[in-house]
Amino acid sequence: MGGPVKTNNHSLQVEKKLAEPVNDVIEKMYLQINNIVQGFVISILIGVLAKLDWPGIIASGDFAVPLFSFTSFFISLVFWSRYYFDTIILKRSFGVFAMVWFFLYIVAEGISFAKIGDHAMWLISTGIFLFFGAGFYVLNILEINRKRRNKMKIYVADNDVGEYLVWQKKRLIDLVCMALLSLSGAYFVMISPSLAAPAGLFSLFFALWQLGKSADYRKLSFLKTGL
Questions:
Q1: Which residues contact 180 (CB under 8 A, 6 or more apart)?
Q2: Distance CA 163, CA 199 (A)
Q3: In sequence order, what are the residues at sequence separation of 6 or more whose Cβ sits closer than 8 angstroms to the Cβ of residue 21?
Q4: Which of these, 162, 185, 188, 200, has the minimum number of CB atoms within 10 Å of its CB?
Q5: Does pLDDT of 94 surpass 80?
Q6: Is residue 36 very low, low, confident or very high in pLDDT (cuts 50, 70, 90)?
Q7: What is the C-alpha separation between 86 and 83, in angstroms, rounded?
Q8: 32-55 exposure pattern, b = at least 16 Cβ within 10 A, e = fewer
């Protein structure tokens, strides 16, 4: 009876050795793609800002454009950092749907950045972009639940996976609400263009609020970071 047990143990060890490098490869792939693509959309943002007529914008008192510009930058930082941190914690599994969703999200982000000079269109495209961002939290929650069911390790620093799951659900709600507010803001700006600056101010506030929430990775001990 000793023979089969040794064989089974050996098989498990081999499977573990084969699985770990694959997980590492997938993690590195996600991280590299995130860095490359987010760098690309930042270059889109810089290109758009460089082409805007800033003297004319300042002379006309159009404060919405600089507010939208800062908001786009901070939103990019939020998603860049969170996708990076969540990938390290979850050791994301490879999925075709997740990859397609990621690239659709990037397209939506690029369109959002390109519409900074058009108040209503920026709010509409940003609302759509935020819905795609919210989709990441749906994928995260599904991944966490799947790994918990299968008793797979989730690399939360203090091992409180339940608190991490609750945090993911709260950020999902945040983004859905922000997306709806952005789309609602577009409607009111189309009716009254003078509301563009207040809409930009609210957008910047929510972006900074979400950026502050990213510090929870350290505060709540989900990940040991320098935030």
A1: 127
A2: 33
A3: none
A4: 162
A5: no
A6: confident
A7: 5
A8: ebbeebbeebbebbeebbeeeeee
Residue 171, judged by CB atoms within 10 A of its CB (0-12, 13-18, 19+), counts as buried
CA-based torsion, 157, 158, 161, 162: positive or negative: negative
Q: Say if residues 203 and 182 touch (Cβ distance below 8 Å).
A: yes
Distance from chain centroid for Cα 15: 32
Contact 125/112 with Cβ under 8 angstroms? yes
**pLDDT band, residue 135 (cuts 50/70/90):** very high
From residue 208, how far is each of 22, 73, 77, 102, 187 by CA, in Å? 36, 10, 10, 23, 23
* Rounded-to-integer distance, Cα 74 and Cα 122, Å: 15
Contact 221, 160 (CB under 8 A): yes
Instruction: Say if residue 56's pLDDT is above 80.
Output: yes
- Three-state SS across the chain? CHHHHHHHHHHHHHHHHHHHHHHHHHHHHHHHHHHHHHHHHHHHHHHHHHHCCHHHHHHHCCCHHHHHHHHHHHHHHHHHHHHHHHHHHHCCCCCHHHHHHHHHHHHHHHHHHHCCCCHHHHHHHHHHHHHHHHHHHHHHHHHHHHHHHCCCCCCCCCCCHHHHHHHHHHHHHHHHHHHHHHHHHHHHHHHCHHHHHHHHHHHHHHHHHHHHHCCHHHHCCCCCCCC
